[in-house]
Amino acid sequence: MQRQDNDLELVRQSQQGSRSAFGRLVSKYYEMVYAVAYGVVNHREKAADITQEVFLKAFQMIKGFEGKSKITTWLYRITVNRAIDETRRKRPQESLDEPVDTKDSEVSKYDRLEDVQPGPRDLAAGGELRELMRNALKQLSEEHRAVLVLREWQGLSYEEIAGSLNIELGTVMSRIFYAKKRLAQVLKGTEKTMLM
Q: What are the pLDDT digits (tens) for 24-43?
């Protein structure tokens, strides 16, 4: 409860024009917003751009935040909407995927699966698994990726996801069920192809 109280105080100060209070909110939630954006668009640079846009929009709209929900709920909603808009706008022109170079020191912790001192065989298998998951996630709609990211990466409850996305609880449950089922189908199909 103290975290929410502290957030509300930072929001109140931000609404009164305190840039340092808003900066503290940005510092506190930057990685969360980036992780959600990346989960939907599956592209590091676009996720970083979306993150900047989300905080710019939040700064412009902060006076309208009434505190009826948590600040994280509000930020999730802005992030998912912006990320979905980005993928729909860019879909016909370019791929949403970019190969991840695991040697790149700037690779975000959200871009790779972390492991304790993996060996070469583990690295190869992990790279294949990441690529399989990345390709499987691309088979889902933006809405299905969004609920999966909020549930599996952010650990939100179904109720929190419904509140964040302003959708019915049944819709959240249905989308998560469908997304997991579709991922399983895609991964099973990929496994059969690899064995041939």
A: 999 999 999 999 999 999 88
**Residue 176 pLDDT exceeds 60:** yes
What tokens does 100 get? 């991840």
In the chain, the domains with their CATH numbers are 1-93 (1.10.1740.10), 119-196 (1.10.10.10)
- Cα(73)–Cα(163) distance, integer angstroms: 7
Q: Which tokens in the block code for residue 136? A: 């499987």
| Sequence-ordered list of residues with C-beta below 8 angstroms from that of 160, at least 6 positions apart, any chain | 73, 150
Is pLDDT of 180 > 60? Answer: yes
Per-residue buried b or exposed e for 24-62, using 16+ beta carbons within 10 Å of the residue's own CB: bbbeebeebbbbbbbbbbbbbebbeebbebbbeebeeeb
Q: Which two tokens stand for residue 129?
A: 């698994």
Between CA 12 and CA 79, with CA 151 as vertex, the angle to 5 degrees is: 45
Distance CA 68, CA 161 (A): 15
Tokens of 3: 């975290």
**Sign of the CA dihedral with 145 first, then 178, 109, and 69 last:** positive
- H or E segment and range at residue 77: helix 71-90
